[in-house]
């Protein structure tokens, strides 16, 4: 496993981060806990030391499952835990909130669910239109001072929004949506993060599994992916055709298409670690080899061009 410093922090993290969103039944249906727990064990054995979750995943369920298992197996110190706050799901309606009081109470709730005394990276999940950044930052500063969180990160923000928080608190990490089918962060967010030495941990590096190339042409998704354009009909088939082209690039490199997709993400110099959504030990075992030497530049560009063309054509078909 390769390790790398996360931004300017003292966290030396594995380049593969274990993503826990899969324990959100609303999006992923009922994911069996037995294989998921074995995946945690395998992750430790394979040297993965970075794990990403959120209060909102299953409305506390993902954090509870993680906290229970890490406590039972005495694995808390094997991982840097990144979690997020933002969604207020305590009432009937679910809505964004990053007020001072909510930020403090969400941290307390996450600590309780995770059964730990500290969160290594506490991330603002997305932009809250109704709270001034200095208010959220004041709460985060208090949590840092109390030792309840170690570092602050953000997710799903643009450069202006990150800069606004940075006026009031150090932001060490950004978590954007980035993969071969979604390259928007390359334009402004990545140069900004490179300039300010902010770590970058992209989510959905496999485009929620699509970039593994493992699905049959007649695959019917029963989870939330059934609602995404690129997962159905002609658009889905156009992407699968492009993934067949990637197989020819992956093979001489002795990579699977999934590994090529992850290595492609990790080759960008702004990227610290890729957060891969894991359900089974096989998922983590077969993705770890992706964290190796960067792709040669011609291969990186060729891969990008194939998928860019496929995305444009697929979107026109949706
Ligand atoms: N900040 C945010 O707003 C945000 C949003 C989304 C996700 N995230 C984080 O990022 C993580 C990853 O994102 P994601 O779950 O959307 O997408 P992803 O990592 O792109 O895809 C996950 C899916 O890929 C498949 N997969 C994973 N490893 C595999 C392997 N080795 N071989 C074959 N298939 C494999 C599985 O699909 P099957 O289920 O079909 O087997 C899995 O459910 C999440 O768990 C979460 O921690 C953050």
Descriptive report:
The chain has one domain: NADP-dependent oxidoreductase domain (TIM Barrel, Alpha-Beta Barrel). The chain is about 40% helix and about 15% strand. The protein contains eleven helices and twelve strands. The strands form three sheets. Strands 11-10-9-8-5-4-3-12 form an eight-stranded parallel sheet. A two-stranded antiparallel ribbon has the order 1-2. α2 packs parallel to α10 and α8 packs antiparallel against α11. It has about 325 residues and is of the alpha/beta class. The protein binds NADP nicotinamide-adenine-dinucleotide phosphate (NAP).
Number of strands: 12
Question: According to CATH, what is the topology?
Answer: TIM Barrel
Q: Rg, please?
A: 19 Å
Mean pLDDT: 96
Order of strands, widest sheet: 11-10-9-8-5-4-3-12
**Helicity range of the residues?**
40-55%
Could you say which structural class the secondary elements and strand pairing correspond to? alpha/beta
Q: Output the CATH class name.
A: Alpha Beta
Major sheet characteristics: 8 strands, parallel
Shape assignment: globular
- N-to-C order of helices and strands: EEEHHEHEEEHEHEHEHEHHEHH
Low-pLDDT windows of residues: none
Ligand set = NADP nicotinamide-adenine-dinucleotide phosphate
> What's the CATH architecture?
Alpha-Beta Barrel
Number of domains: 1
Count up the helices. 11
Quick one: CATH superfamily?
Answer: NADP-dependent oxidoreductase domain
Question: How large a portion of the residues is in β-strands, by DSSP E?
Answer: 5-15%
Alpha-carbon distance between the termini?
A: 39 Å
